[in-house]
Amino acid sequence: MVDPRLQILYLLAVGVAAFASSDLWWLCGLLGIQLALWFWRRLPVAGLLAIVRRLQWFVVIVVLSFALFDFEPGDRLLSLPLWRWALDLNLSGIVRGLLLSSRIVTVICAAQLIQRAADRETIVKGLRGLFVPASVAYSLDLVLSLLGADGPRRERRRRAETGAKTGAPSDPEGASTFRMIRQLLKGDVGFLVELMRRSIATARERAEGYGLKPEAVSDLAVITGLGVLTMTVRFLKVLPGVPFAPGHKGIILLPFYIIAYDLTASRWGATQLGVVIGVTSFLMGEGKFGPFEIIRHIAPGVFVDLVMPAVRGLVREPGAFLYGLVGTGAAIMRVTTVLAVAYFVEAPKAFYALLVPMMVTNTVFGFLSGFVTFHLMKSLQKLRTAL
Fold first, then answer.
1. Are 195 and 311 contained in the same domain?
2. Taking each helix axis from N to C terminus, what angle separates 91-117 and 24-40, rounded to the nearest 10 degrees?
3. Do 142 and 98 lie in a common domain?
4. How crowded is residue 211: how many other Cβ atoms within 10 Å of its Cβ?
5. Number of domains comprising the chain
């Protein structure tokens, strides 16, 4: 059994190596190593196809950006007649786009190798061995324990059972998320408060077994409880497999960061929640961009931890509009995942222009999350009783 610390260091090394050069043979060789290890471990080909399927639209947009907008001296062009005009297609740019996109495939392949080579508890031990803060490691351990090995299936079942008791939408498919969002925007947050209270209380029962100080136990319960509930909401589907209204779940999830900031004694409670959600999502194979997904969850937490002290310094009890501005900033920070990946593959400037629609929808949903936060904050004292 390979030391889990070495496994995590291997993933970091692959990421650095992929970024170190854009040479054809270097990148192809690095990807070839991951594929060789994949087949050597006799992992299913379906796993590789799943990686490609998740990234297909990202790669297509990157390649089109290189083909239509990124021209360098000496590039080979193909002129396509288009009615009265001619469209110049950069064949060399297509090759560059595919080559640089292989960086992401390489890193995600390496991440999948580690995920499949060890259980989640082993990876958590590896993080502890690399001096990850104990509070984060304990939270990861508890979240993974509460979610269980069957992850999404168990959470959907638990969601249906809890929904029947609290009045929350119970159908995990179809339009259940939108029904929940409509309910929350109307100010009917009772079912969500109850879910949060139950989740935090359950996490506290488990957290007491670590023998920590009372203040540390309370923080651990909050981070773990909100982390489990976040993963529950993330498992819900609107239109399975279709990128419909990107960012809509932010209406439900972004308020959790502010709740974490208020309920924890730690100065970086929201950031810790982001780390736990990000690493848990990565270990469970959620999201398209493998380890880069972790950035997506950490960035809003850092933003909330930095901004909320100033907000509370201005207004003792912020209104829905002010919470909406905080939610907007946090939502924009969530887009950093795609920006980081785009930077990683050296995407042309035109690619970033194509991200504008996604930025707009995330911003709108981020602002709407402020209304949910406003109503949730009225029940903050009820949540403290779970601690």
1. yes
2. 30
3. no
4. 8
5. 2
Which residue, chain included where needed, has tokens 């299936």?
Answer: 153
The pTM score is: 0.72
SS (H, E, C) 230-288: HHHHHHCCCCCCCCCCCCCCHHHHHHHHHHHHHHCCCCCHHHHHHHHHHHHHHHCCCCC
Are 130 and 110 members of one domain? no
Tens of pLDDT, residues 25-58: 998 999 999 999 999 988 888 888 888 887 887 7
User: d(Cα 83, Cα 97) in Å, to the nearest integer?
Assistant: 27
Domain containing residue 245: 119-384
Taking a C-beta distance cutoff of 8 angstroms, is the pair 357, 61 a contact? no
Burial 215-238 (b: 16+ CB within 10 A, else e): ebbbbbbbbbbbbbbbbbbbbbbb
pLDDT of 296-337, one tens digit each? 899 999 999 999 999 988 888 889 999 999 999 999 998 887
- pLDDT tens-digit series, residues 165-189: 444 444 433 345 667 777 787 888 8
Give, in degrees to the nearest 5, the angle at Cα 101 between 366 and 152.
Answer: 50
- 269: which 2 tokens? 């409670």
